Amino acid sequence: MLLCCAVFLIGPAAGVNPVYGTGAELFAAQRAYFQRWGVIPADLFEGSPRAVLTPATALFVHGSWVHLLGNLLFLYVFGALTEERMGRVRFALFHLGCGYLALLGYALANSHSPQPLIGASGAISAVLGAFLYLFPRARVTSLLPFLLFLPLRFPAWLVLPFWAALQWLAAARAGDGPGVAYLAHLVGFGLGFLYAWGGRGRRARVKNVPVTAPEGEKQP
């Protein structure tokens, strides 16, 4: 979380680093920054060593304050217990590995896209998948727009598959232009669940965990 914040603050998207200028100059710097550190599917499979590293660097690049804070909220809510169960080193490797593969999976499905892909939500989706396996009975507080955003508590086994289903429906309608990389969310979620299942972690009961709606990725 600290690394994501640090990378965002020193980059142009935060708008606080004077080295990138303002106005059109700042906008051009943002585009160049995303092109350099984000995943560009059309360039990824050309064999360039730099391009091969971008699914890792893109995990720490965010396009706006909302993008960053939304991802960090989910990482904090679901990551703390998952990290406690896995251990810090194992969790860090799991987060990075699944995040890399989630962005790679999106790039494979959109191999001709020139749109840069950035953000940690593929990795955080993997954390959600692992959380579902490890803590299926954990009750999470959800804010549902069709219920006037009333805070309601549901078990993880109900909330997280519902979230994954929404990602699936959105991915079926999404293109490869600017927006949210729903497919990366699905790949990450599936990888996280399978990783936790393969690890045969002992399930546990936990107290209520608050959560709001997830932020997307693939920005701008």
TrEMBL record:
It comes from the Bacteria. It is a multi-pass membrane protein. Coiled coil: none annotated. GO terms for biological process: proteolysis. One of its GO terms (molecular function) is peptidase activity. InterPro entries: Peptidase_S54_rhomboid_dom, Rhomboid-like_sf. It is found in: Membrane. Residues 56-198 form the Peptidase S54 rhomboid domain. Keywords: Cell inner membrane, Cell membrane, Hydrolase, Membrane, Protease, Transmembrane, Transmembrane helix. The chain crosses the membrane at residues 59-79, 91-109, 115-135, 147-168, 180-198. This is Rhomboid family intramembrane serine protease. It comes from Streptomyces ziwulingensis.
